[in-house]
Structure formats: C-alpha cells, structure tokens
Design brief:
heterodimer, A: mainly alpha, 14 helices, globular, B: mainly alpha, 12 helices, about 65% helix
C-alpha cells in the first residue's frame, strides 16, 4: 500500500514538472523552441559525425552502416531521456551541491530522492531527442529487418535503464567531490557526462581488446551505446555475458550510494561555504 | 603590450588556482577520448577505402587536432560572461575590452598545453603517430585560424547580446555546428556524397581543418591560406562593426 502511494506521489510530482514545462513552452515559446532546437542539433551533430564516417567507409570495424545507425539511435534515445529527466541539474548534481543549492531542497517537505527524481522532468521541451531517437530506431530496425518481439522490446527497455543508471551513478559518484571542494568540483559532473559524450558514440568493434575492456570497466563509455546495441543485435562482444551492463549498473550504484552518503554526512556537518544569507554562489 | 601579458598570466593562474589536481579530470577525459579516437581511425582506415588521405596522415590529423584543440576552434568566455555579469567588469579597466578577452582566452590555453599537449607529444611515437609537419606553412595557417576563430567568436557573442538570455543555447548550437563544419573531428574532404567539395569554402572550414590539412600535407597551402586570408578580411571588419554597435545593448545580471 505504501509503495502504491509512493508511486502515485511520484507520478503527481512528475505531472507538476511536466505542467510547468508546458507552461514555459506556451509562455516563452521562442526561447523554448530554441532550446529544443539546440538540444537536437547538438546531439545530431555528435552522432552524425560517427554515422558520416560509417557512410564514407561502408561501416566501421565489421559493423555495417545500418548497425551503426541502430547504435546511434540507442545513443540518441539515452541522450533524450537524460535531457527529459535531467533539466533541473538533478543529474548534473555537482552544480547543485557546489552552488550551495542543496539547502533549498532540504527545506521542502519531500525526501531528497523524490525531489531529485522528479524535479528535472521536462517532456515537452526536452523530449525532442527522445522522439528523434525513436524514429531513428524504427528506421534502423526496418533496415536491419530485425524481428521485434515482446522479449526484445523488454531487453531494449532494460538496457536503456541500465545505461541511464550508469550515467546517473557515475555523475553522483564524481559529484561527491563537490561536498568537499564546492568551487573546484562544481562542474565535475559536466566533465563526467558531457566530456565523455563523443567517446560514448564510438563503435569499439575492431579496436584492440585492451581498449575495449578499458572502455567497459574503467571508463564505461562502451556501455553507453556500443555494448548494449550489439547485445540487442545478438552479437554480444568479447564473450561477455549479455547481463554485464546490468551487473555493472548495480555495482556502480551501490558504490555510489555508499560514497555519496559519506559526502552528504560531511556536508550536513560542515555546510556550504558558498551559501550566503542573501542567496548562494559566493 | 605588458598589460595584456599580465592579463593572460592572470588567466593562466586562475585556471590553476585550485591546484593542478582539479585539472586532472579534464586531462584524463582528453586522453581517454584521444586514444580510442586514434584506434577508431585505424580501424576505419584499414578498410582500404580510397579517401585521399593515408592512415598515417589521418592519425597525425586527429592527434594534432586534439593537442591544439583550444586553438583549432577558438572559444572565448564572452557569451558566458554576458550572463554572469563578468563582461561588464571589463569596461571598468583601462584597456581594450576585446584585447582583454583575447589575452584572457590565450592565457587560459597554457595549462592544458603544458599538462596535456606537451606530455602527449612524447606519447605519440609510442602509439605510432608521426608528428612531423609536412609543410612550414602550417604556422601561418594556424595563426590565421586563431585570428578567424576570434572574429567568429565575437560575432557569436554579439548574437548573444542581441538575443539576451539565450547565450547558453547559442553556445550549444554553435559548438555543434562548428565541430562538424570546421573539420576538426572529421576532415571536410572525407564527408560523403561530395559534401566536402561545397563545404570547404565556408568560413568554418578555415578554422581547425585548414592548418591541420596543411600539417599533414593533404591540401595545397597556397589555396588554403588564401581562403583563410579572404575570410579574415571579410569577418574581422564585420565583427568589429557589429561589436561596436552591440556594446550599447549589453544587459547584465547575475554573478
């Protein structure tokens, strides 16, 4: 019963965020449309760079152009979801911590988790890339003549959720530094997410094994699109288990949870040196 | 001139104020992007497709592009400073606003040049990348590329002034367009369907892609430099005129 009430509350909060997003779109249409355009252009330029190379060379490392398109569609969908759920810096959490804005969340009569999960939802102005990604996915699936079953669709959703979990967990993990060094680490989540964006679109097929393994473990960019795409195409690479992204997401989340809590404990005792009585960001 | 040198030095020191350790994430990301990119091109070029560039040229192109990335496509802090209220402060100092902007931008390049580019020069032979330039005309071309980069950046800053609070969005659109059209990620000549033939005459192609193609010897220096000169001669007067007119429209808030 409690779980049901919680889910209902989350949906209500998401609806409030969505409503505010719609109001913004209607009231400041020019700005909102520019925002949608900028998100789409930004993502398309990144994925098209790889796709153009594939077109010019008839594929990359054993993957044909349609398989590359499939991979790019996966990448675009995750980028779309990231933008759709992360417009309030709730995924770029080091900004909230570093700027002393976490105090603002403490004052609300809601748990921190619930606020962070729901307050960045912007389906109207942030859904552009998700839609483009879905269209790209349909085109690539048709070109590859993949047989779509319920099981395959569930796998797609689970892989996307695992990728999103890895993105969020990694961002929160590195953002813990902002509890201790708010000024220097304010933008560290930006480095962790946006700085590796281009790398996450690289098809790693054909690269040396040491590089592939490094990009699936130390810096998990291979899990952002390449590995899950190949799993969905039935070509799981490197003799890894197809459950590897899920295991990685789980382990990373547990580590992040432990370290982030330590940072929070430090923060609630010391406070933020950037918070001033008339606002924030000293 | 010494005022500008001091400004550049301040900018350099500002980057390292928190300690070099805080630059490490950026350096690591650069290294972790560059090395896979080199191997990606190795995989792509080993397909044997004839694209007018050898694998060795392509690897050098990619490597130098990464080492000199700040210079390939110049980005000043003008757009960001507009929304953060910093740009207004520049008017309170007894030196040219554009001069300060240029000095601060160039000063900020040094930490990465010293901590990333220089060490990576020594790593290059270990991963089979030859860094010998094919022509000495690379240097004048690089200077023209930097000069044009500042002119284009000033024009984008003016667009931010005009559109008020859209600086972040403009910055994203600009980064996306420039990264593709400047040839710093994919050489323009490698674009499919003959797009490269048309694209090589647009101003963004005179940014990073031009000195890089001279560096690896895949383009004729005379033509490339001539085109760079023409775009500099067109865009600098336009940038100065538009900036002069835009100054009155600067609205600043935040901080």
């Amino acid at each position: 019963m409690e779980v049901k009430a919680k889910i209902k509350r989350i949906l209500k909060l998401l609806a409030i965020s969505a409503k505010m997003d719609l109001v913004w779109l209607l009231r400041d249409t020019k700005y909102a449309l520019t925002g949608i355009a900028s998100d789409m252009i930004s993502n398309l330029s990144t994925v098209s760079a790889v796709y153009l190379i594939a077109l010019r060379f008839n594929g990359i490392g054993g993957l044909n152009t349609d398989e590359i398109l499939f991979m790019m569609s996966y990448s675009t969908i995750t980028t779309g979801l990231f933008i759709m759920f992360g417009s309030g810096n709730n995924i770029h959490i080091s900004r909230i911590i570093g700027r002393g804005q976490l105090e603002h969340l403490f004052m609300q009569p809601l748990s921190l988790k619930m606020q962070l999960f729901t307050n960045g939802f912007c389906p109207f102005t942030g859904g552009g890339n998700f839609l483009v990604g879905c269209i790209m996915l349909i085109i690539s699936v048709r070109r590859l003549s993949l047989s779509i079953t319920l099981g395959w669709l569930l796998s797609l959703i689970i892989y996307i959720l695992a990728t999103m979990t890895i993105i969020v967990a990694r961002s929160y993990l590195v953002s813990t530094a902002a509890f201790y060094a708010p000024v220097a680490a304010e933008e560290i989540s930006m480095t962790a997410i946006d700085g590796t964006w281009l790398l996450s679109t690289f098809p790693l097929s054909g690269m040396p094994a040491f590089l592939q393994v490094s990009l699936l473990t130390i810096l998990p960019e291979g899990l952002m699109a390449w590995f899950p795409s190949l799993c969905l195409l039935g070509k799981t690479p490197l003799h890894f288990s197809k459950y590897y992204p899920l295991a990685f997401a789980l382990i990373l989340s547990l580590i992040t949870s432990y370290i982030f809590r330590k940072g929070m404990n430090y923060y609630v005792k010391k406070g933020s040196n950037r918070y001033v009585p008339y606002g924030f960001r000293r | 001139m010494s005022k500008y040198m001091k400004t550049a030095r301040m900018s350099y020191l500002e980057k390292t104020n928190g300690g070099i350790i805080y630059l490490l994430p950026d350096i690591m990301i650069k290294i972790f992007t560059l090395i896979p990119l080199i191997y990606l091109w190795r995989v792509v070029m080993s397909s044997g497709a004839q694209v007018g560039m050898s694998m060795s040229q392509m690897l050098t192109y990619t490597y130098i592009s990464a080492l000199l990335s700040d210079m390939m496509v110049v980005k000043t802090a003008a757009s960001g400073w507009l929304s953060e209220g910093v740009l207004m402060k520049l008017y309170g100092r007894p030196i040219s606003v554009l001069g300060q902007l240029i000095a601060q931008t160039m000063g900020a390049w040094f930490p990465m040049l010293l901590l990333f580019s220089l060490p990576m020069v020594f790593v290059a032979p270990l991963i089979g990348v030859n860094l010998m330039p094919a022509s000495p005309w690379f240097l004048p071309s690089l200077l023209l590329c930097i000069s044009l980069g500042f002119a284009i950046d000033i024009l984008f800053a003016c667009l931010s002034i005009k559109l008020r609070n859209m600086s972040w969005l403009i910055s994203r659109i600009r980064a996306a367009i420039v990264s593709l059209l400047s040839g710093t990620i994919i050489p323009i000549s490698l674009l499919p369907y003959g797009i490269g033939v048309i694209m090589k005459y647009q101003p963004f192609a005179c940014l990073g892609g031009s000195p890089l193609s001279i560096y690896v010897g895949s383009a004729d220096p005379e033509n490339v430099i001539l085109l760079q000169l023409i775009w500099n001669m067109i865009l600098w007067p336009v940038a100065l005129l538009v900036f002069k007119k835009s100054q009155e429209g600067i609205v600043s808030y935040g901080g």
